[in-house]
Design goal:
The complex is a heterodimer of chains A (567) and B (271). By secondary structure, chain A is α/β, with parallel strands linked by helices. Chain A is 34% helix and 23% strand. In chain B, 3% of the residues lie in helices and 34% in strands. Chain B has a 13-stranded mixed sheet. Chain B has a two-stranded parallel sheet with strand order 2-7. In chain B, strands 3-4 form a two-stranded antiparallel ribbon. The chains are: A alpha/beta (567), B mainly beta (271). Chain A: It comes from Methanofervidicoccus abyssi. Chain A: Pfam families: Amidohydro_3.
Chain lengths: 567, 271
Amino acid sequence: MEYIIKNGIVFDPLNRIDGEKMDICIKDGVIVESVSKDAKEIDASGCVVMPGGIDSHTHIAGPKVNTGRLMRPEDSYRDIYYKKGLKPGTGFSIPSTYKTGYQYCEMGYTTVIEAAMPPLKAKHVHDEFVDTPQIDKGALTLFGNNWIVMKYLKEKEYELCAAYVAWVLRNVKGFAIKIVNPAGTEAWGWGKNVHGLDDPAPYFGITGREIVRGLCKVNEMLGLPHSIHVHPNDLGHPGNWRTTIETMGCVKNMEPKPKYGNRETVYYNTHVQFHSYGGTSWKDFVSKGVEIAEYVNKVDHVMIDVGQITLDETTTMTADGPMEYDLHMSTGNKWANCDVELETGSGVVPFYYSPKGPVYSVQWAIGLEIFLNTDPSKVILATDHPNGGPFTRFPRIIAWLMSKKYRDYWLNEKVHKWARTRSSVGDNDKEYTMYEIAQITRANQAKVLGLSPERGHLGVGAIADIAIYEIAPEEKDPKIIERAFRYTKYTFKRGEIVVKDGNIVKEIFGDTIYVDVKIDETLEKEMMKDLEEVFKKNYTVQIENYKVSDHLANSWKVIQIDSSEIT
Amino acid sequence: MEIILTLKEDITVPVELDALLPEKIDNMDVEEIKNIKIPQGRTTVKVGELFDVEIRESDTPKMTIKNSSIKLKRVGEGMTTGEIVIEGDVGMHVGAEMKGGRIVVNGNADNWAGRGMKGGELVIKGNAGNYVGSAYRGGYWGMSGGTIVIEGNAGHEIGEYMTGGKIHIKGNVGYFAGIHAKGGLIVIDGDVPGRLGAEMIKGAIVVNGKVSEILPSFKYKGIVENPVIKIKKKDEGTKIEGVYHMFAGDYVNNKPKGQLYISVDRNPHLG
């Protein structure tokens, strides 16, 4: 099928196209130079054309999302998706799989990365991916509190650790290395937590710093497309901004060596809003968003996503087990908790960020402060769905960023006065341009994930994932902005129209992306000797049952990497 | 204006009546009311198909349901003013989330009577089911204001997640009365089998009947006479006549402020 998208105003930051009126040609699912006369014409005059959106950090599949759905029937009643010809779905903050796929697609998003997959529970993640339509998916794999990783790093056996990471990614079909509260989630297995980068995990005696540095080294040895993806220690604690900067700083001398993609950074700090808190308690709690933004602007090795609070009732879920316990104790709300054998843990707690709450209002302001002060080529729009708020609120965040007037309306009329007195959001006049919105919603993600060779841009050869929004580039009315980014005029997935005028018109099933790294055979054999012993001794499953089999995806997109030079 | 709805014959498939609030239909004529669509099971029917409709003069918006059945659900849900009188039994969610006005049920009510109620008055002359004044499944928004009076017995888990208002049960109740309560007052004149006030943080429960046992996570505070119960700091207090064992809890929570008052006369085994 051939299409030509005519007269749209194109924003494609990876190709430095800033609001140019041009035609886009599509043939057989990819973007091409020109098409034949038979091509179907799509009139995009008066519309903004962007590459398909990418969410680099979201929680949409797997055991903890499912636990959230089970423990929150009340979330189910709040939002019911029922459209003719489509699978019905429910859930506002933790939508069911089909609803997730449809709603991302309605917003023009085409690739989404699940941010926390415990290797042992990978089958559950992939099984839900199979039932998530319209988008391509990938899963960050949890390694930060893994016993085998900690043991190898403690003994400084980086090659063996690299072989192990490669083996896990290949066998559980994972996309990149995720680190959550390094040493802290393991400490939670002992009823404890760590309170900084240099506190050791019980028994293993390894610190967060050694884990972050070690896995960063392993990541670059293997040449993975994405950098290490880190959720540092002390999430949500006043005064944690120092730990955040220290963690970012601890890998500053490392060099990016991706064997696929064009990444230039070695460290991805996720939901940095939760890690930018000043003060010593909730009473003298202040924003340190500007300090974090200044640090990120100054260095070359860091990329951040924000984890913007949207002031909704939502469901928090993270592999940071001790943090969820704290949240449960402070709110008295229901709580689920899980220990994943040798690998990680997790917790789930429903949470209401009330606009009237002083602390929540400051959290909201911190996120915006980070957006407004960071170089737009280094910051990514995400809500850490559903932790900061559901992904369906992205359009509202875009409206806050594009309209100073709208931001001030919220600041003065809707939220607690602490947001004004304890942050600098009210003093900042920056308004995001359409080009910058395209950077923080697709281009930056594509580049940092290492997917920019074929995604996140509209150059010839790219996958034809395209979003067309019915909005003028200089529009300032928040209502129009919100509406336009919530429902696209057209969404193209792989060169096919899947959304038209905000309605899903075609159901398609995307790829699951994973990384297959080839490792030196003798090294792998040596590692397998250790691993087989661990499985025999400590795991409740056999090694053969651990692997994710090939049928657990609609289609696999494999990124092949050869790292057999590591010996 | 008073609207009188008479159920023509007994129904088997439940009907939802939340569209028929007295304030909503106050200025309609008989034909308009007959044409209102209401859900019955998985289909929709018109009011006129199930009910005879009659209008009478009245100063306040009023609705009377005659020949009522336990299959009529969500009667008076979300009402803010006026009065509803139900002759016969009524189904689930009667008076749910009501903010004002008055509902009288001259019969029994099914589960979730007064669920998440915010204001107004709900009187049930017969018995009520489980979850009187509670939150709905999974939720944590119980009754926050208003008054519920049940002249008969009530089921389990009444006043779950209650944060304000008053529930008065003149008969007996089931297990877990006042579970997760964060405020409000529950008065029970009859007997309680146990697990009273489990995980309550704030609020008070008064029992004039027999309580077979108190949860071990409550602390005994001694005997009080004619107590004045204060729930909030600025509360004037509710005066209760009688001699009571007082307990505080539930100490499974941090710094709980829940209060239990258990009749001394009927419970010599406590204390």
